[in-house]
DNA sequence: ACCTGTGAAGCCCTTCACAGCC
DNA sequence: GGCTGTGAAGGGCTTCACAGGT
């Protein structure tokens, strides 16, 4: 989900649909597991199951990359691992900077899955001077004042923001100014970035709210009226209302 | 993204599109900020900007909930906050259990944004007996052996999995058996769940890989051939290949 | 004059179903 | 016989553009 200052129209980069790109990492993970078990080939059906998608979708996805399978046989595991890795840009090293070394930032710094795919935590940055020098996950925390230099020196183009929401936009601006063009944002804030900068967001609270929505549906299959707490009165009451759970109103007979 | 054992066909619950549900939390956050600044009403244009979407989409989204605006004026902030909260099921309390209290689990337990929206960390569960009793974020960690009882006693219906990937499916099965019907999975694993159970996943590594894909595009606008490392040989070489970066091949004149 | 609510159009993605190849 | 690759159909979401209400 790339949110930019200018709403880029879902830039389908070189013909590969965004939805497909988002699934390539899933395929790669499944393929890597097969590779470790020394499985030589895999069918679209098997691989699709392992990745949690259906096989038609998988074959369509792969068709955007090229004709990498063999009819009647399936896909060569090692070959596909290489092709997908290359397509995702994982054959090169990506230095990443994490800004905001609180609980979450520290957890990410310690996260093993990071390094496994060409990503390398090149720098940890925090605004608290007291943290400067203290190593987290073996990497010394550096102060925000040096952000520009740190980004430049390490050739960082991907930044991870794990600051409190209030600081996120400012940090984002500084990262972009220093040359970062991809941002992973964990702060619950809408970031504004210039065109050409990608932002993806991860928001725990949003995920839970979506789950709660569906959870509520499951529970309220028949028991409808769970009216707790007084709904605030409408500024301008009008005729049509929502489907249910609305203001007490006279039911039309 | 609800991944189930049976692929539910994007269950549009009571007519509200899934895409709309996923944006309601964004609107709610923007509205809450306006509410705290005591702004009484807001136009679709203003609110859309604050939420990082365009106004047509926002109006369409709200139209699924009902006619909650006033033409020529806009939307009443307090009223909308209530309606969206109710729609998302946030007018009730949601006890949540976190399983796997490593760095990430602890970070989530400490995360403030949790409690702000009706979610309450009711239990922390870990397989390490040494952790039992130790409080994290003021909540004592309990042992996995008691998982069933803990879930039941607290009426937990939403579980968060922050275990290592190897343990995720097993923990998931136990959560479901104990009555959990919504799962937020941070482990890089495809979870199998019975029908009726929702799974949403958050995967840092996948997000980074998607960013890397686009990042690679930006960098390689002209400089194409970044060939490092030998690509593994294909089991069965064939005719058609991928668009570029493939095996060295004779170019057709 | 202004802003919402919504049919209609367009786009993207998924799914089907089968031709093509091993 | 089996499995991939892909046109075509179908469905959902976004965007447009304007009718309708205040």
UniProtKB/TrEMBL annotation, chains A, B:
<dbReference type="InterPro" id="IPR009718">
    <property type="entry name" value="Rex_DNA-bd_C_dom"/>
</dbReference>
<keyword id="KW-0678">Repressor</keyword>
<comment type="subunit">
    <text>Homodimer.</text>
</comment>
<keyword id="KW-0805">Transcription regulation</keyword>
<keyword id="KW-0963">Cytoplasm</keyword>
<dbReference type="GO" id="GO:0051775">
    <property type="term" value="P:response to redox state"/>
</dbReference>
<keyword id="KW-0520">NAD</keyword>
<dbReference type="GO" id="GO:0005737">
    <property type="term" value="C:cytoplasm"/>
</dbReference>
<feature type="domain" description="CoA-binding">
    <location>
        <begin position="89"/>
        <end position="190"/>
    </location>
</feature>
<feature type="DNA-binding region" description="H-T-H motif">
    <location>
        <begin position="26"/>
        <end position="65"/>
    </location>
</feature>
<dbReference type="InterPro" id="IPR022876">
    <property type="entry name" value="Tscrpt_rep_Rex"/>
</dbReference>
<dbReference type="GO" id="GO:0003700">
    <property type="term" value="F:DNA-binding transcription factor activity"/>
</dbReference>
<keyword id="KW-0238">DNA-binding</keyword>
<dbReference type="Pfam" id="PF02629">
    <property type="entry name" value="CoA_binding"/>
</dbReference>
<dbReference type="InterPro" id="IPR036291">
    <property type="entry name" value="NAD(P)-bd_dom_sf"/>
</dbReference>
<dbReference type="InterPro" id="IPR003781">
    <property type="entry name" value="CoA-bd"/>
</dbReference>
<dbReference type="InterPro" id="IPR058236">
    <property type="entry name" value="Rex_actinobacterial-type"/>
</dbReference>
<dbReference type="InterPro" id="IPR036388">
    <property type="entry name" value="WH-like_DNA-bd_sf"/>
</dbReference>
<feature type="binding site">
    <location>
        <begin position="100"/>
        <end position="105"/>
    </location>
    <ligand>
        <name>NAD(+)</name>
    </ligand>
</feature>
<comment type="similarity">
    <text>Belongs to the transcriptional regulatory Rex family.</text>
</comment>
<dbReference type="Pfam" id="PF06971">
    <property type="entry name" value="Put_DNA-bind_N"/>
</dbReference>
<comment type="function">
    <text>Modulates transcription in response to changes in cellular NADH/NAD(+) redox state.</text>
</comment>
<dbReference type="GO" id="GO:0003677">
    <property type="term" value="F:DNA binding"/>
</dbReference>
<dbReference type="GO" id="GO:0045892">
    <property type="term" value="P:negative regulation of DNA-templated transcription"/>
</dbReference>
<feature type="region of interest" description="Disordered">
    <location>
        <begin position="217"/>
        <end position="253"/>
    </location>
</feature>
<dbReference type="InterPro" id="IPR036390">
    <property type="entry name" value="WH_DNA-bd_sf"/>
</dbReference>
<protein>
    <recommendedName>
        <fullName>Redox-sensing transcriptional repressor Rex</fullName>
    </recommendedName>
</protein>
<keyword id="KW-0804">Transcription</keyword>
